[in-house]
Amino acid sequence: MNRADSEKKVLRQEGEFVVQKMSMSRRMRFLRGFSFAALFLFAGAQTASASDLKEILNPKSGKVIYVIGKGGKNKNPGTKDKPMKNIDKAMAKAASGDTIVVAEGTFKGTFGVGFWEMTKAVKLYGGFNRDFSARNPVKHLTLLQPGPERFSKAPKKHMLFSKNNFEPKHPIVVDGFVFEQGQMNPYEKTQGKPEGVETGMMKVGAGSANPNATCVTLFGSDLTVSNNLFVNCANNAVRLKLGGNLGIGLNGKGRALVANNVIVASRMSAVEVYGTEDNAGEAEVHHNTILFTWSRVKDLATLGYGVEILTKVKFNIHDNLIAMNIGPGVNNQRFNSHIKMDNNLFFGNKKKDFWFNPSSNTDIRINADEFEDLELDSVEGNVNKQIKLPLDKAYFAGVIAASYSEKTDYNPDSSANQLRAMMGMNKRGKIKSKVSMFANRYPWKEALKLWGAIKGKGAQKD
Predict the structure, then answer these.
(1) What backbone torsions phi and psi does residue 404 show, to the nearest 5 degrees?
(2) Which residues contact 90 (CB under 8 A, 6 or more apart)?
(3) Is the dihedral of CA 64, 69, 70, 72 positive or negative?
(4) In this structure, what are the phi and psi dihedrals at residue 23, rounded to the nearest 5 degrees?
(5) Counting beta carbons within 10 angstroms of the beta carbon of residue 13, is it exposed (0 to 12), middle (13 to 18) or buried (19 or more)?
(6) What gap in Å lies between CA 341 and CA 289, rounded to an integer?
(7) DSSP structure class, residue 369
(8) What is d(CA 265, CA 293) in angstroms, rounded to the nearest whole number?
(9) Are 203 and 209 in contact (CB under 8 A)?
(10) Alpha-carbon torsion angle 344, 346, 349, 355, nearest 10
(11) Residue 258 vs residues 34, 58, 76, 209: alpha-carbon distances, Å
(12) Which secondary structure element, helix H or strand E, spans residue 32, and what is its range?
């Protein structure tokens, strides 16, 4: 079956119930805006049907490697009856184009190193039950959760990443996992700790451990990150580097799809996509729930973006729930005008919903009610509206009240400074800083409640 026939089949069998309820104009916008992969994901986002399961386990090319965690052996061939134990060992065994399926359970990496390096373009699917007869990433949790010892073993490694120096001739897919860094990140015990929050603030800055591990960093021409939960990512949740001339791509160009993910309490940015060459392709970011993205350091001043729009890629950002980030909901300070931004729900972003620079030396932050005046490829149906979400109440209250202050202790006439002046030295003072909350650990099990919290917006459960 060719690509066009396959697309029609998915629309007919799984997406029809969505389309038939729309007006004709909405149907046309729906079909124009969604790629083949997006249709597939939206129609059967979490509760995979029997046909979906069969398609994953019986790919048209490449072999399937089964990973079961406890009870498996890495010396096994990775068949269904003889599954492997560890994901990293399966990725090392796989060839480009293979599929790796992973059962429910907690994975910390071989010897607890807590990172997974992809050296070939493979498809990773989690969320299976133990005998691989059913798949539901919300019910059958495939948890990637490095322990506290991971920081000393591999402090500079991202959690899941693909190498930059291989040529992916096949799609890369990461679908159906829970990425949780809250056990490996260093946190203060009491500093910056609101009442009821699990930890103090993350240790970042001068004299601190400075965690810098993204949850997922991928490089290639056909990238999909979908149906995952990201919690407490220390340095970006999803970072995609798109190179359109490296592989199959979309219409001769690259494609990056970030769809139906829940991303909570990451640091710096939740989703970041950029091209490695001019006109690298298109990034589609849709039906994601993005909350509580934190700034780079404790001053709450820089970064903290829900979605960061970078260069050399066209963007299609739609139907997301983007709320309560320390920075703007969507950031575009790189003069990228090739943007579609439709039907997103924003609220509570501390630096407005959209931060952009229409020209040099011009800095503008606006909320969704002003989007109609933006000069973008498309900007329709965005709203800023307060809604009730199933959040950890202590964490929510802490974010709402998050503040930073500095106090300078400088006396130019002190004895020490007078002596320093006599010796031709600069006078000194002390700056004491205080933050009420910064990148504290969010209880990851509470984040599971955000699947399907708002019908049609953000990550959907069914």
Answers:
(1) -135, 140
(2) 65, 67, 78, 84, 100
(3) positive
(4) -70, 165
(5) middle
(6) 15
(7) G
(8) 5
(9) yes
(10) 40
(11) 12, 24, 33, 30
(12) helix 24-33
Contact 237, 179 (CB under 8 A): yes
The rounded distance, in Å, linking the Cα atoms of 304 and 24 is 39
49-69: b or e for each residue (b if 16 or more CB lie within 10 Å)? eeebbeebbeeeebebbbbbb
Rounded CA-CA distance 237/344 in Å is: 20
Q: What is the pTM of this model?
A: 0.85
61's tokens: 């090319």
Spatial contact of 209 and 186, defined as CB atoms under 8 Å apart: yes
Structure tokens at 309: 């729009």
Q: How many residues does the chain have?
A: 462
The encoded tokens of residue 434 equal: 């205080």
Q: Are 97 and 61 in contact (CB under 8 A)?
A: yes
Angle 414-419-423 from CA coordinates, rounded to 5°: 145
Q: How far is CA 202 from CA 268, 272, 324, 334, in A?
A: 13, 21, 18, 29
Provide the 8-state DSSP code for 145. Answer: -
Whether the Cβ atoms of residue 99 and residue 132 lie closer than 8 Å to each other: no
Question: HEC profile for 226-241?
Answer: ECCEEECCCCCCEEEE
Torsions phi, psi of 16, nearest 5?
A: -65, -35
What is residue 426's DSSP assignment? P
Tens digit of pLDDT at every position of the chain (462 positions): 443 444 333 333 333 323 333 343 343 333 333 333 333 333 334 456 676 899 999 999 999 999 999 999 999 999 999 999 999 999 999 999 999 999 999 999 989 889 999 999 999 999 999 999 999 999 999 999 999 888 788 877 899 999 776 566 789 999 999 999 999 999 999 999 999 999 999 998 776 767 888 999 999 889 999 999 999 999 999 999 998 555 544 455 789 999 999 999 999 999 999 998 888 899 999 999 999 999 999 999 999 999 999 999 999 999 999 999 999 999 999 999 999 999 999 999 999 999 999 888 899 999 999 999 999 999 999 999 999 999 999 999 999 999 987 566 666 776 666 666 776 778 665 656 689 999 999 999 999 999 999 999 999 987
Distance between CA 338 and CA 315 in Å, rounded? 6
Residue reference for tokens 């029609």: 8
